[in-house]
Amino acid sequence: MAADPTADGLSAAEAAHRIATDGPNTLAETERRTWRRILADSAREPMSLLLVGAALLYLALGQLDEGLLLCLMVAVSLGLGLYQEGKTERALAALRDLASPRAHVLRDGCWHVIDSAGVVAGDLVAVHEGDRVPADAHVLSSVGLQADESLLTGESMPVDKDATAMLFAGSLVLQGHATARVAATGGRSQLGRIAASLQSLRPAPSPLQRQSAALARAFAVLGMAFSVILVLVYGVMRGDWLQAVLAGIALAMSMLPEELAIVMTVFPAIGAWRLSRQQVLVRRLPAIETLGAISVLCVDKTGTLTANRMDVVALYAHGARHAVMDEPLPTALAPLLETAVLASTATGPDPIDRAVQRLGAACLAPAQRHPDWSLVHEYGVSAQQRALVQVWQRPDGVLMAAAKGAPETVLEWCTPDAGAGLLAAASSMAQDGLRMLAVAQATLPGASWPACAAGIPFVPTGLLALADPLRPEIPACVARCAGAGIRVVMITGDHPDTARAIARQAGLADTPVLTGAALDMLDDAALDARIGEVSMCARITPTQKLRLVQAFARGGATVGMTGDGVNDAPALKAAHVGIAMGGRGTDVAREAAALVLLDDRFASIVDAIGAGRRIHDNLRKSIRYVISMHAPIAGMAILPILAGWPPLLFPMHIVFMELIIDPACTLVFENEPAAPGAMQRPPRDAQAPLLTPGALASTLAMGLGPLVAVAGAYGWALDALAPAQARAFGFTTLVFANLSLILVNRAAGYSLLGSLRQPNRILWLVVAATLGLLALALYVPWLAAVFQFAVLAPALVAGAGVIGLAGALVPALLMRRHGN
Question: CB under 8 Å, gap of 24 or more: what pairs does 754-761 form?
Fold first, then answer.
């Protein structure tokens, strides 16, 4: 039986019944790629079409064994692609589930935080500043509630919501808080009715995706052009046009680096999945490309550098400081704490309000907490008003206002004589790293309140000192950033003396503090000139964060920025990598950011930057491997024809090589550990191409060594062995050259011998599978006949292996010796 929704909310049983009846509170989403869709897409790839065409040609030639084997290899290739794409889709699905928004609901008389998909009609929900409304709901009670409904209406102006209003799913709470009863969920909500239009949105390709696509197109065009030329030359010279077409198909396949598209899909997706296991949620995959290039990291103090475990540690009033641990609370300080409790929300996520409420419950009598007073108005915290003011109505009808906030703000509302001493005391206590708040109260004349809190005649009651200890791992993390060439800049709304004390404990560079007031006096040119010497910013508003991000970016930095509030969204979007707090952050901040810290730890940011560097390094290694390996394959597809030799490679040989290249360029290189010293080098230039012309040239040169080795081995074998044995010898050399190129490319960043000591189980599985398949092709008579091989003596296989390995290793060692 359902509980009365106005009292205890729904029961868990009733909620489960309704979600079973109405379905989850989700919108129609872009169709996820099923295995059938992945298989169909893979079958339409140019490589697959070329393979099918080659198989049909073999069958047309009456070569049934060759045609069936090629069909089988096509199926294996598609199966491998299905596995890789499926792993990517599973990783993306896991990220989507992690990114699902949360909702505060009342179930069985207790408040719970649940996935918004579990919200049902009839639920009581609570929304606070920064939340995204989970479903259409009728407001039951609200305090200063304003919502942004631009997603539905297109109007950017905030909309006031009172107890007679309707909240709509997808809207954002910009100010205040409320409780509401859910009226419609999922597709029945107003947002659900326009969800179909959202399905058409597709993210634009990232810079690296555009670069790799352009590179793949260039190779594809060259491959098709050379293939046509090869077909014509082969047909004219030898008169065998069917074999000419097969040779042309082999050349086209050898020059088509279709792996690049797979690499650019697999690496970011699997990398993001790995980061999620480290408590870092990637909301936008292109951020993976930029993450490792961060050179300036702007971080909040509270909750990022500190533990976000606020406690009131001292009270100051009447010229005396009282440590909270001293018992009991002096009678003279009771009015200070009493007013502070009245100036704090009873529920909500703010850690300062929770700390004040805890102390009030422990030190004040029930009557001093005034349970019979009614909250009638609230002036919320904003960039212009760095204080929370709540107006209460006493049982006798008199209105009382209580304020709590930054001393400069609250004491400015009081008479100068009353606030001067408190300002000096606040500055002195802030030097100990304490967060200082001033508290004031006022009795309002009449039965109304002014439009602005500054119009209230406040009288100061004292100061609160709160401590938020530095996280123990912060000094080591800051030192790690310094070693990686990353400049850490602390940006806080706290007092400059508090900021300086925390920065000193964290090990930040000892530079002058840039305050918000000083920032406002600087134009962009002056700010750009000063920004290079800043590592501490205090009394900064969220809008000023945006200016700081833009200034760092103009200076050529790649900026990472943390944030958690509604007004942090512009700075998070403007940063190259916006990082939102998952624990204390608002939905607005999380949706504006590229990354979300699920544990709100600064150490997780540093680990994520290291992971970003690893991902980019491995991505570059993989692409270099793909390009360098296609050079000997393409060369050996065309060189024998031009030299008048029997062809070495036919389509089934190319497919064999692709069965090695595909898992190597994705699974092997994606699984590579970080190179030693990855976090001891300066950040790379985020705007630099993945492969510069020089790097592309050296990559192609890396493939020339194996090409020369294979060509030499095949030429020698044609003179010394029978044609079928020569083809087996040349192909074996090519297979070992491929394995050698894997080792050479994975060793980038450390020595060749050192690379062999780096753990990578998938590498050795690929090597073992490659050698096993090669043994089958050489020694199983039916397969050897299909590949047009003859049995090779073990000594010849060993010789081919040595030549193939040396073909890549020797040039690589020579290039390293000469600094290339």
Answer: 754/676, 758/672, 758/673, 759/673, 760/668, 760/671, 760/672, 760/673, 761/671
- Amino acid present at 209: Q
- Look up residue 202 and give its two tokens: 């597709």
Which residue in 78, 69, 52 sits closest to 784, CA to CA?
A: 69
pLDDT at 35: 55
Amino acid found at 688: A
Active-site residue set:
300
For residues 538 and 519, what is the distance between their CA atoms, to the nearest angstrom?
A: 10
* Of 273, 298, 299, 277, the residue nearest 285 (C-alpha): 273
Tokens 């947002």 correspond to what residue? Answer: 191
Alpha-helical regions (H) of 644-668: 651-663
**CA distance linking residue 437 with residue 462, whole number of Å:** 9
514 forms beta bridges with 537
Q: How confident is the model at residue 715 (pLDDT cuts 50, 70, 90)?
A: very high
Q: What does the alpha-carbon distance between residue 558 and residue 686 come to, in Å, rounded to a whole number?
A: 7
Length of the chain: 820
Determine the Cα–Cα distance for residues 263 and 260; give it in Å rounded to an integer: 5
Sign of the torsion angle spanned by Cα atoms 184, 185, 191, 192: negative
* Under 8 Å between Cβ of 806 and 700: no
Flag whether pLDDT at 529 surpasses 50: yes
Nearest alpha carbon to residue 436 among 409, 456, 412: 409
Query: pTM of the full predicted structure?
Result: 0.73
Report the C-alpha gap between 422 and 402 in whole angstroms: 17
**For residue 801, is pLDDT > 70?**
yes
- For residue 333, the Cα-to-chain-centroid distance in whole angstroms is 48
d(CA 597, CA 282): 9
Taking the C-alpha atoms of residue 601 and residue 598, their distance in angstroms, rounded to an integer, is 8
How far is Cα 151 from Cα 130, in angstroms, rounded to an integer? 15
Chain-centre distance for alpha carbon 123: 32
Verify cis geometry, omega within 30 degrees of 0, for the bond prior to 371: no
CA distances from 369 to 313, 359, 372, 400, 765 (A): 20, 11, 9, 13, 68
Asked if 403 and 413 touch (Cβ cutoff 8 Å), the reply is: yes
- Phi, psi of 643, deg, nearest 5: -85, -5
Cα 533–534–536 angle (5° rounding)?
A: 155
Ramachandran region of residue 131, left (φ > 0), alpha (ψ -120 to 50) or beta? beta
Closest CA to 126 of 148, 147, 105: 105
Q: Residue 128 is encoded by which pair of tokens?
A: 């606070």
Q: Please name the residues in contact with 41: beta carbons below 8 A apart, sequence gap of 6 or more.
A: 33, 85
Do residues 760 and 46 lie in contact, with contact meaning Cβ atoms separated by under 8 Å?
no
- Please count the other Cβ atoms lying within 10 Å of the Cβ belonging to residue 553: 15
- Percent of the chain's residues with pLDDT above 70: 77
What one-character DSSP code corresponds to residue 87? H
User: In sequence order, which residues have a C-beta less than 8 Å from that of residue 274 and are 6 or more positions away?
Assistant: 611
The structure tokens listed for 460 are 């100061």
Give yes or no for residue 508 having a pLDDT over 50.
yes
**In which element (H, E) is residue 393 found?**
strand 387-393
- Give 292 or 259, the one with higher predicted confidence: 292
Rounded alpha-carbon distances, angstroms, from residue 817 to 240, 678, 811, 820: 47, 21, 10, 8
H or E segment and range at residue 462? strand 459-467
Are 27 and 151 in contact, with CB atoms under 8 Å apart?
A: no
Q: Pairing mode, if any, of strands 577-581 and 559-563?
A: parallel
Segment 206-252, tens digit of pLDDT? 555 566 566 666 666 666 676 677 667 767 676 666 666 766 666 66
**Residue 283 is encoded by which pair of tokens?**
């909301």
Strands (E) across 493-622 are located at 513-515, 536-538, 559-563, 577-581, 595-597
Span between the terminal Cα atoms of the chain, in Å: 75
Tokens 């069958």 correspond to: 59
For Cα atoms 273, 275, 276, give the angle at the middle one, nearest 5 degrees: 65
